[in-house]
Amino acid sequence: MSFYKKLLLKYQKNNFIFAVLKNIHIMAVLNSIITRDIDKLTEPTGNIYESVMIISKRARQISTKTKEELNNKLSDFASTIDNLEEIFENREQIEISKYYERLPKPSSIALEEFTDHKVMYRKVEAEA
Question: Fewest CB atoms within 10 A around its CB: which of 19, 55, 68, 127?
Answer without folding.
Answer: 127
